[in-house]
Amino acid sequence: MAVQTQTIVNGVNVDQLVGTINAIKGNPDLARFKFRAETEWIGGGHSRTRIQSFYGAGAEDTSRSKPFVLEGDEPPVLLGQNAGPNAVEAVLHALASCLSVGFVYNAAAQGIQVDSLEFKLEGDLDLHAFLGLSDKVRPGYENIRLTYRVKSDAPRDKLEALCDYVQKTSPVLDIIRNPVPVTIDLEN
Amino acid sequence: MAVQTQTIVNGVNVDQLVGTINAIKGNPDLARFKFRAETEWIGGGHSRTRIQSFYGAGAEDTSRSKPFVLEGDEPPVLLGQNAGPNAVEAVLHALASCLSVGFVYNAAAQGIQVDSLEFKLEGDLDLHAFLGLSDKVRPGYENIRLTYRVKSDAPRDKLEALCDYVQKTSPVLDIIRNPVPVTIDLEN
């Protein structure tokens, strides 16, 4: 009987992580992913997004038996009914979720044990552009401030270096900090 | 007895929308909002975001008695357990949620009745940067494709003009298409 041991750090299977990296080194096309979402308007500011399928690692993923359902809405002061967080709040969630994965996976790869990890985010947004009252103000966030709080036995300089590395490689931080081309079509 | 009538189009209170616009014209500071999120790492790729408070219209909002809770995780092929959509999928949700609000609110302001509105989104992402295997590939989406499907009695050219206008004023589309400064601090 063969005994298999797996290296799990921070809940991350490091053997699988190394295996993934080696597989991609052998076949770079495995790194090409296509992520998807479908959204329907419900009424007023309320919409509902379903997220299930994606393409990656050379195949359509089949791991999700049903879609994740995300509600979007506005608060009453922005004419909605609080059926969900609004779109720019969802951006903050996406950013923290991405940095969390990046931090924890890279910590695991480096053998750094993370005891806890928290993020606080705040973004400044001036509604003049969204309401069509000014074209001198941008519609989106003027800036976003984020603070990490990490508990770990690792020395401070190692954690700081890890933060820096995570910032360089975070997909959502890149999407927010740098331009992404978006093509938009109105179907017939 | 005074009779009050309200103009509701697409579930949007147009009187309130006009009132908001006039209030901001009178006091531009009312347009300054601060949106927030707090995220805690749960384990592996799994994190949980709470969204509740924000500042806007000159005051801290008190409309939400409890936070919205959003789960983030990765699928098994990316070493997670599908406790939620991943961070770059959440970006697609945020984008569609934003365009939905923009389209429906502006349609209401123009007196355009919307019967239904749907979005499909797909983004291409190469994992080489996230996995530290290349610095020639960007970490985030290379591009995002989005299609609208609208049912409305309004003529096609009016809907196209509305789509164009919404693209110019959408906060999340601006955040994705253009650079947003993000400051990140590691707390002691």
Largest interface: A-B, 125 and 125 residues
Distance between the termini of chain A: 62 Å
Number of strands of chain A: 10
The major beta sheet of chain A can be summarized as:
5 strands, antiparallel
Write a structural description.
The structure is a homodimer of 188-residue chains. By secondary structure, chain A is α+β, with helices and mostly antiparallel strands. The first copy, chain A, is 30% helix and 32% strand. The first copy, chain A, is built from 4 helices and 10 strands; from the N terminus they run ββαβββββαββααβ. Chain A has helices at residues 14-26, 87-109, 156-169, 171-177; strands spanning 8-9, 12-13, 32-43, 46-51, 54-56, 59-60, 68-72, 114-126, 143-152, 182-186. The first copy, chain A, has a 5-stranded antiparallel β-sheet with strand order 6-5-3-4-7, with no helix packed on it. In chain A, a hairpin with a 2-residue loop joins strand 5 (54-56) and strand 6 (59-60). The radius of gyration of chain A is 20 Å and the shape is globular. The termini of chain A are far apart. In chain A, 44% of the residues are buried. The model of chain A has no long low-confidence stretch (mean pLDDT 96).
